[in-house]
Specification:
single chain, alpha/beta, 5-stranded parallel β-sheet, 12 helices, 10 strands, binds 1-O-phosphono-beta-D-fructopyranose
Length: 344
């Protein structure tokens, strides 16, 4: 059987990570200028599906590194309920994120944002020459992240890396940006070192439910991988903040549950306690972090900019589960690559 294209997109993705960093560095002075001159009251990150989850992760990091209020919002909500999201009368900076650069909700939300004079925008995408591609004051386009398959893997990671790098530039954290240059090499090593373990868990069809736990800037990433598990494998799957798992969701733990922890360094003990509780309840756990876990990055890269390393092994796990279930990971059920609506 021909190897699904999703496989190539997952294992080759670090080329796109590198291009993402290079592209941001080329536009670094424009990013600094836009941020320093703007006096923005708030920063919004908007997308749909995967790119909404990217928005959640990016907003958490933006606020952490700059101290400025930041939100992640689904583009459709921004379009339909703008007053629930924009600061009244405030000046906003909007990051619009879309792999395809043609998702209707995102394109229209940005159009309306500009028409209403709400502030300036930055577009993040993988495709030039499309409706969203040059709508921003600055446009971060990473062609190496383009993909043929429907579910986002390398595209997501490439746009996430670009956004994190842009945040470092705007926060004046050259130290963090410099540390990001080591990500592609470490990511490639992780893919090689942990493919077998990803496959073993992915092919374990006795599991019937997956929970992804991530907090702070990792929550959006937990949401994204949970979406991968849904799209590619049609399995019951949900993301939660670590401590939230005790407040109800843990009642779903059984011996056929796999709880996957995006363990941090900053709150490691509290997060590890939740996973220990899952064990006591008879569930299975699979844990990723920089050291001493099932998947260990051993990167030494500062925590705020290492989070992309949680993605590749889990994307592979979803890929192998999809194959084991006899599904086509390239073409998830009922899904279109781009959602286009005929809104006036
Ligand atoms: C966003 C998106 C994907 C999803 C599906 C439909 O597209 O919702 O996240 O997997 O393929 O489109 P985009 O705006 O990032 O191109």
């Amino acid at each position: 059987m021909k190897q699904p294209i999703t496989y190539k997109e997952i294992v080759g993705q670090t080329v796109a990570w590198k291009q993402a960093i290079d592209i941001v560095e080329l536009q670094a002075s424009a990013l600094v200028e836009l941020w320093d001159d703007g006096a923005y009251d708030g920063v919004l990150f908007a997308g749909c599906g995967s790119t909404y989850y990217l928005a959640l992760a990016a907003a958490a990091l933006f606020q952490e590194l700059t101290g400025k209020p930041a939100w992640g919002v689904p583009s459709g909500e921004l379009l339909m309920y703008p007053e629930s999201h924009y600061l009244p009368g405030g000046k906003n900076l909007l990051f619009s994120i879309s792999r395809s650069a043609e998702t209707t909700e995102t394109v229209l939300a940005v159009e309306k944002f500009h028409q209403e004079g709400r502030g300036k925008s930055i577009a993040v995408s993988n495709y030039p020459g499309r409706p969203l591609s040059d709508t921003g004051e600055i446009n971060l386009i990473i062609p190496a992240g383009q993909e043929e398959s429907v579910a986002q893997t390398q595209s997501f990671a490439s746009m996430y890396v670009a956004t994190v790098a842009a945040i470092c530039v705007m926060a004046g954290r050259q130290d963090l940006l410099a540390a990001m240059h080591r990500l592609p090499e470490i990511g490639a090593k992780l893919l090689a070192d942990y493919e077998n373990i990803a496959r073993t868990w992915g092919e374990n069809l006795s599991l019937d439910r997956f929970y992804f736990l991530g907090s702070g800037p990792r929550y959006g990433l937990a949401c994204e991988i949970s979406l991968k598990m849904k799209e590619m494998t049609l399995t019951h799957s949900e993301p939660f903040h670590f401590l939230e798992f005790r407040h109800g969701p843990k009642s779903m733990v059984t011996e056929t549950a796999l709880v996957i922890g995006f363990l941090s360094e900053s709150n490691r003990k509290h997060e590890a306690d939740v996973l220990a509780e899952v064990h006591q309840l008879g569930g299975n756990t699979f844990v990723l972090s920089d050291f001493q876990t099932d998947v260990s990055f051993n990167s030494g890269i500062p925590e705020p900019v290492r989070n992309v390393l949680y993605l590749p092994v889990l994307q592979l796990m979803a890929f192998y589960r999809s194959l084991a279930k006899g599904l086509n990971p390239d073409r998830p059920n009922n899904l279109d690559e781009v959602v286009k609506l005929s809104w006036a």
